[in-house]
Amino acid sequence: MRRSGATNPMRSSPASSGVSRRSALRPNLRPTPLFVLVLVVLALVIVQVLVLPVFHRRLYGPMGFAMKGADSPRYIDPANRLRAGHLPSSYDVLSSGYVAIIALSKLLGLGLAGVVVLQLAMAVPAAMALYDIGRKAADPVVGLLAALIFVGNPFVARWRHYVLTDSLFESFVVLTLWAALRARRNKTGGVLFLVLTASVTALLRPNGGLIALAAVTYVVLARSSHRLRTGLAFVAIWASLGAVALVATRLANVEDFYNIPDGIRRGISVAPYGGHPNGIVISMPRSSAIGSRNIDAVQYAIVHPVATGRLFMTRTLYEISAIRPGSSQVYNLLAPTGLCLTYVLALVGGMRCRDRQLLIAIAALLVPQLFVLGSVPADGDSRYILWFIPLLGVLTAIGIESTFQMLLALRRRGSGVASPLAPSDLS
């Protein structure tokens, strides 16, 4: 029999998960959604107009409003062909959503600037989605922090000015996460919004389909009353898609370093970039039998598991660390340090967060991305971090809140002043 007044430690609501709703950063601060929206828009304008030009010029060179990256022709040229009435190629189909956006923007007379405006605009609802996730998982201040981190990170913000899929993709990955969490809770319109965001995500990038399927898998399993049976069904679906991918021949119009079998054979760790025009490679065992199909890469990995595993690990570490030999010393100091701090804070946030469903949802969307990172060479510009860094935003914010909370408690204890926080806030 439970004693009167006792609390059950196992019954913690998501609202109190990880950190108290009484924020340690500002005990009386209760930012409303409208206040957060205004602050997010203001922060976005300040970062993109005032901070980013200086940051970009110092690390990368002069900045324009609508800039082209090395991969931009992959989307601009098909958009021009689409406007001329030509059907997209097999590779273009995998990014048909972005190609269609460029074509529509040009059709409306907005040019590439219209695409950039859309990318900037979509950062706002994505930031508000992170605010809502953080508010429910911890408290409104954590949500505000997550939103501001999303719009204020210059390494992320700079890609909103490039005609590349990554910026719009990261916004829709965040919106897909938010929609999946709402759909799990049977919120009104949650399932319909998940279908919308997942569909757009799948059409923006080749790996968007993995995100969409992972989100749907998470929601169906979370809502199913027969999880074992449903789980086995999804295992069959994932296995079938994997089998199709394995037997597929390489797609047309893809450079050699994006060809999975050839990239493994040549040991390409990082795609060509300014510091290394030929890319960064590691030695791999020779094999004349490796062909152009993805299944040939699997066969090569079976024969040479250690070398292939080392290549996958090297690629992933290059991408998640953002270290690029030959780039400026300032970049190689700021980018890896900032990412390392993000990972540490996200780890602290993950340990403190008691919203188990949020952690499962983030993992469901994150794991497929990490697999893709190991399958292809790391990008020379480190922009593939946009695939997963936004997913860590709420956990990073919880980590900041928790760290500040612990430091504040230690300071009060050291000065002999009783902490105003409840004991449960420090557990």
Report on the structure:
It is a single chain. With 427 residues, this protein is mainly alpha-helical. It has one domain. Helices cover 63% and strands 1% of the residues. It is built from 17 helices and two strands. A two-stranded antiparallel ribbon has the order 1-2. Helix 6 packs across helix 17, helix 10 runs antiparallel to helix 16 and helix 12 packs parallel to helix 13. It starts with 32 loop residues before the first helix and ends in a 13-residue tail after the last helix. The N terminus and C terminus are likely disordered.
Sequence-ordered SSE layout with sheet pairings:
Layout (H helix, E strand, L loop, with lengths): L32 H27 L13 H11 L6 H4 L2 H12 L3 H27 L2 H13 L1 H4 L7 H20 L5 H15 L3 H16 L3 H21 L12 H7 L1 E3 L9 E2 L12 H10 L1 H17 L7 H24 L3 H20 L17 H22 L13
Antiparallel strand pairs: 1-2
Any low-confidence stretches, pLDDT <50, length ≥5?
1-21, 249-257, 421-427
SS strand fraction? under 5%
Number of domains: 1
Whole-number mean pLDDT: 82
Helix content: 55-70%
Key descriptive features of the protein:
427 residues, disordered N terminus, mainly alpha
Short description:
With 427 residues, the protein is an all-alpha fold. The protein contains 17 helices and 2 strands.
